[in-house]
Write a structure and sequence with these properties.
Blueprint (H helix, E strand, L loop, with lengths): L4 E8 L2 H12 L2 E3 L7 E4 L8 E5 L7 E7 L3 H10 L3 E8 L5 E6 L5 E6 L1 H8 L14 E4 L2 H10 L4 E6 L5 E6 L2 E7 L18 E4 L3 H10 L3 E9 L4 E7 L5 E7 H4 L4
Parallel strand pairs: 1-4, 5-8, 9-12, 13-16
Antiparallel strand pairs: 1-5, 2-3, 3-4, 6-7, 7-8, 10-11, 11-12, 14-15, 15-16
Length: about 260
C-alpha cells in the first residue's frame, strides 16, 4: 500500500482554548464527548483530512503530529532509525486494534506510523454480515492516576502507553498487548471494587507460566491476595494480587496447558 497521511493531532496544554480558537477561526466543529480527554475535529469539508486535539503529556510542549498509514510498523521503525529517526514509543497494539509507534524525525519533529487493523479488515471484507470485537480493557476509576500508573509500571510490569492531562486525568497501561484504563474520579470514596460486592476479581488474565509471573510480582512487592493454588472446579492454577486502589487482578493458567495437575 501507499503511505498516506490520514490524520493530524494537535497536542495542546490547553485543549479547550485550542478548540475555541480553531472553531472561531475556521468554523470547525469539535466533539468533546470523550472520557479520555480527546477532542475530535470535523473541518466540515470532504477535502483534506480530519484530526483531533489531545491534552499534552506532562513536560511536553504544544505540537502537531502527523499520522501515517503503513503496512508494517516494526519495519518502518527499523528503517526510520537507520536514517536518523529516534524512537519515542515502541510499536504498541491499540485497544481498538491496529498498532502504532511514535518517533522523532532527524529535526526533532514527532510523527506517528500506524497500522489500522480495523479499517483494513473492513476494506478487505466490505460485505461482512457481522461486526467483530477486536480488544477490550478494564476501566478502573482511581483517586490518583499518576500513582496508580506508576504502581502498574513498577510493581506489575505494565508499560504506560498513554497519559492525558497535567497531572494525568487518564492513562492506559498495558502488558503483552493487554490494556487497563485508569481514570481520575472526583469522589474516590465511592470507588467500590468487586471484592467489596462479594466478587473475586476486577479483571482476570490467562497467562503463560503462571508460577514465574507469581515469583516476579511477589519479588516486586505486589500485594498477593491468594495463591498460587489449583482450582479443581475449572482446572486452573491461579493467583491474585490487589493493586493500590483495591482492584483485584487474577492470573491463571489452565492445567491442561501446563501438562500437569499436580
Amino acid at each position: 500500500m501507499s503511505n498516506p497521511v490520514f490524520e493530524f493531532q494537535i497536542i495542546s496544554k490547553d485543549p479547550d482554548a485550542t478548540s475555541r480558537f480553531y472553531c472561531e477561526l475556521f468554523a470547525w466543529s469539535v466533539n468533546t464527548n470523550s472520557t479520555i480527554g480527546h477532542r475530535r475535529i470535523d473541518t466540515g469539508s470532504k477535502e483534506g483530512i480530519q484530526g483531533g486535539i489531545w491534552p499534552a503529556p506532562p513536560q511536553a510542549p504544544n505540537f502537531v503530529q502527523l499520522f501515517v498509514a503503513v503496512d508494517d510498523v516494526a519495519a518502518v521503525v527499523s528503517k526510520a532509525e537507520t536514517i536518523g529517526a529516534r524512537l519515542l514509543i515502541a510499536p504498541t497494539t491499540l485497544p481498538e486494534g491496529g498498532e502504532i509507534a511514535v518517533m522523532h524525525d532527524p529535526q526533532g519533529m514527532p510523527f506517528v506510523v500506524c497500522r489500522r487493523e480495523a479499517e483494513q479488515a473492513q476494506t478487505q471484507s466490505p460485505h461482512r454480515s457481522a461486526p467483530t470485537l477486536l480488544r477490550s480493557a478494564p476501566y478502573f476509576p482511581v483517586a490518583d492516576v499518576e500513582k496508580s500508573a506508576s504502581h502498574y509500571e513498577r510493581v506489575l510490569g505494565f508499560r504506560r502507553d498513554y497519559a492525558a492531562g497535567t497531572p494525568p486525568q487518564f492513562a492506559i497501561v498495558s502488558r503483552d498487548g493487554l490494556s487497563i484504563m485508569l481514570r481520575l474520579v472526583s469522589a474516590p470514596e465511592k470507588i467500590c471494587p468487586n471484592e467489596c460486592q462479594g466478587g473475586t476479581w476486577d479483571a482476570f488474565f490467562w497467562v503463560g507460566d503462571v508460577l514465574a509471573l507469581h515469583t516476579e510480582l511477589q519479588r516486586n512487592g505486589a500485594d498477593i491476595v491468594y495463591g498460587p493454588l489449583i482450582q479443581d472446579a475449572y482446572q486452573m492454577r491461579e493467583f491474585a494480587i490487589r493493586d493500590r486502589e483495591g482492584y483485584v487482578l487474577g492470573f491463571g493458567q489452565p492445567l491442561v496447558l501446563q501438562g500437569t495437575k499436580s
